[in-house]
Batch of 4 targets.
Target 1
Amino acid sequence: MPKANETPSKNKNTKTDTKPKVTSSVRVPKPATNGKLKDTERKVFVLDTSVILYDHSAIQNFQEHDVAIPITVLEELDNFKKGNDIKNFEAREFIRFIDKLSAEHKLQEWLPLNGKTKGNFRVIMNESTTLDAVKVFGDKNDHRILNSALQIQQEQPDRKVVLVTKDINLRLKARALNLISEDYETGKIQDVAGLYTGNDTLENVPANIINDLYEKGVSEVEKVMPSPPADNHFFILKSFKNSILTYYNASEKLLERVDKQNAFGIKPRNAEQTFALHALLNPNIKLVSIQGVAGTGKTLLALASALEQRRDYKQIYLARPVVPLSNKDIGYLPGDIKSKLNPYMEPLWDNLKYIQNQFAENSKEFQKIRDMVELEKLMITPLAYIRGRSLSNIIFIVDEAQNLTPHEVKTIISRAGENTKIIFTGDIYQIDTPYLDSQSNGLSYLIDRAKNHPLYAHVTLMKGERSELANLANELL
């Protein structure tokens, strides 16, 4: 499906958005737009509620094509307009936009969208169709949305009508009714297999360069590779006999040796973990993402590095996206906000206890962690209340970031004030929310968009270090 107007790139790690090929002969409703496509080439895209909650500006991202939403979508958005979550913000922003757009017009008429290359917009009021999805599948909102799309198709048989939804099951039902259905792809990473990893291995490096790096700690990048790599990119350099860990210093424009560092009793167990700790402890890198399967040490390394740097920041914030069970919000759980969040935050506390248990109970390090929790120097914070805040002098660790949307990731980073470091950890292949996947989640989006920025570093952890049994699960099951 068409995506936002963006400049295509040949870089395999960069998302490319291209103008769609449209071959159908269509009749365009009035008023016509001043777009590049001819009147005989424009489609009608019908948007589901899930698309609006993912991106409130979605109706602006279909180029010269026309966009419609069923009246049922407006009814559903009304249920989402109150609250502090990002989805509530998205619902409110969309409602405000539609209110402004339709100030002097009727919503059931085609209204021109802003911009010379935009199409038209309308709300579909009629849900009566010859092929009734409610009779086929039952009476629910999803099926009334299907009827709205079928109604447009019936009303304008010469046009290509496409239902756009992030609900996989709704897409399948649409196709069962011979209705074209697609995912909303703006912001989606096209080549997840080629997603930026943050580290590489270079073979057959001259031995004298590796020796020079051991002696001096730095080397000119031109001696090793023909062109500079991405900023803060990590390398394992190998010669016939030797190897060394290095990274490309973005500010100095030099390859620098990476030495193993310990963080509050936690020692890296492989080269990738060494790279991750180096990025986490580097004061010049303000934004770090760590991607890897379960048991690779993502959360543990992030927590240990934050504790190691506790004197440089006023507080350490820990957060995880709350993915409600059985579609029930945390409000259904008993107790205050801390009590409600605790079931979701247990993995963070487990890692904290593991770090604490590296020391004897009577040691100052053991007591320091306890004191930090009691004095709220180290605290859990709900992401729902992050909007509007300014976070200065903190380390902010966001675990399970693959369950965030790109907009949520942007919102979190935009809250950063002076002397703040933000760390995102997660596994892009283990997603718990129904409308995200490995291509559209916020962690993948961040890795793809932020690479090659001097303030950003990313490391992909491949080797599991939790236990042999955990590795068995990841490899064989």
Target 2
Amino acid sequence: MKPTTYREALVWASSLLASINPKIAEWLQLHLMGVERQEWVRSLDDSMSSDALSRYQGWVKAVVDGEPYQYIVGEEDFYGRTFHVSPAVLIPRPETELLVEHVIAYAKRYWADAVSCTMVDIGTGSGAIAVTCALEWDKVRMLAVDISEEALSVASHNANQLGAQVEFLQGDLLQPLLSRKKKVDVLISNPPYIPFSQKEKLDRNVVDFEPHTALFAPEDGLYFYRQLIQQSPSILANQSLLAFEVGIHQAQAVVDFIKHIHPSAKCEVKRDYQGIDRMVLAYIEK
């Protein structure tokens, strides 16, 4: 039977998406209708127009075929805010919220008496980290770097929409900072860290749709950490913090890289929601 109401369409979609996540059926309807959840519940028995039904069915089938629903609706929530996303950027993950949480906690501890704290987010993508840090503490002076013009366009849009003051720079890793002779107190990065050898093991919705330049890295996934850490002495202030999100089984290698370049660094490894070592934070005094 062809669905005629939102409720009937929801039942149909939830069944198709049962093996993925049936809640996606609800999220897609909420976005389709452009209403809050309470109003959506009241409208479930309303009839759907043929155009609305066709659009909804197309979205559901796209998710079944592997497309992330975040790209379909063009947004994802991060740290309590809604960010625009597109296939040009990685979809923000909940684990990265923990990285922001730790960075802000460290910054408030070590720069509590400072007039400001200059941070840079390398490989900013959607700008989720940079925008959130800028909004979470009024002392933050935020810079954000990405090599992709398309990614910077998405990040800039998010900063404008959410009212964050962020200076965006295009370039490869730390080069925009080095060329401008900028110094920062905090360097944050969630760089590509999946080894190319793991490509076939990833879910289709990741491999087929998310940007590979934001996912994969050579040298067992550790290439970008090596580059950032080796270049970091030239851009870090006398008192500074390195903060990285890392892949599974990579934390100790990243700590070792940091200790090689910054022998006096005080390193901490933090776990994610699954208990996996996911973040490396290193406080440095020159």
Target 3
Amino acid sequence: MAQRDMDTWRRWISENLLLGNPPEAISAAMAADGEVTEEEAKREVASALESPYVQGGSRVANRLRKREWTMTVYGRLSRMRPNGSTIERRERLSRDEFYEQYYYQNRPVIITGMLKDWPAMTRWDFDYLRERCGDREVEVQFGRESDPDFEINAPAHKEMMLFRDYVDLVEKAAADGTGTNDFYMTANNASRNREALDILWEDIHPISEYLDGDSVDKGFFWMGPPGTKTPYHHDLTNNFMAQVMGRKLVKMVPLHDTAYVYNHVHCYSEVDGSAPDHERFPNMQKAQLLECTIGPGDVLFIPIGWWHYVEGLDSATVTMSYTNFLKFNNFVDNYTTYQHL
């Protein structure tokens, strides 16, 4: 066998040994693949077991397993808490309640009543958006449905167009009832769109109970037809999702269940949130899953590290998201695992 092919097998062997898989099962899987003989497979696995590199890696893997065990303790304790399996709805939480009970404790919550004074709640519709910003050029993601890794490859899907034309596309999809994930304006487009849509910020007010008082132009504008999807991922900050138009389904998995969500690169999971394949990803069934639907006027707090999948439901959706909380939220500086895991 070519050296390059055997090196691929050797990396696979070492990874599976460090994951704790039995040596005999590893060699059997290699032989069953047909590329190597049973003897070659056994010899390579035995060699790996004797390698000081693998032995050193095993010590590190053992430390990581200890940390994973610690996280499972948090998970079990969380499930014991009353309402631990639901995302609570709270009307106009006070600042102290929000930070003490949810932000500091890394717990999600839906806050209601905070957007009542937003003119956007009554003004924003297709005609109004076209009238106010129709001639502005905006950035949108297209071709998402043809790429299974559309979110990871988001920069490759960016296109420029008039906001009027984009609103037309969204309105048509909503009227036809044809859900699509093929085009979506997301936070990944914010650097271009924040200035292009600046006149819309007159219609939203700072959520100053929780965010810094100069937050109007610090939000991220999301707009899409029914059927938009954001795959399972976690953010590197705490986040607010303030829903203005339409409804979204949100599926969430706590930070402490990260070991079960098949994180394969950066902050993304391999699991399809719309139809999880439990045969391919059996550990996902061990993860605690919390679901909610948010609609106009709802503000969903997504704690840092919580895995979430988001899907636009039965109409066009517009969402504002925020990260500029009054308390520390700069967890990005010491994050280094952007590569494949």
Target 4
Amino acid sequence: MFAARVAGEETAAAAGPARRREVHSAWQGLLELRRMTNPGGDVDRPCGWERTHLVRAAALALEAAGHAPAGPEGGGYRVRETPQPEAVAVHEPDGEALRACAATLEGAGWQVSEHREPRTGSRYLLASPRRA
């Protein structure tokens, strides 16, 4: 069973050509699910499954676009639940990579805004699936 890499849960051994094929296949399957379930076969916006699996869906979009998930040594993106309904937080320590994550999610049909943590001042994205 395929699992999107959320925040360093997979080992480094899971990287490589086999993982890239799995991610590509999972992303293509998600696009097909969008085509079959969205009105008019629209693949440019998230489907119902993505709305019920926000963290996994956002992580899959990021990994399918080539972004590196956070590993044990740090760096890379982390996708987390938020108290806000239908939204996830995407953390990435590198500012340029954070902006690239925002562009990827927007291209995958998500609404994205950038915020700062009140205590630490670190930047993160708040992302939610676009409805229309």
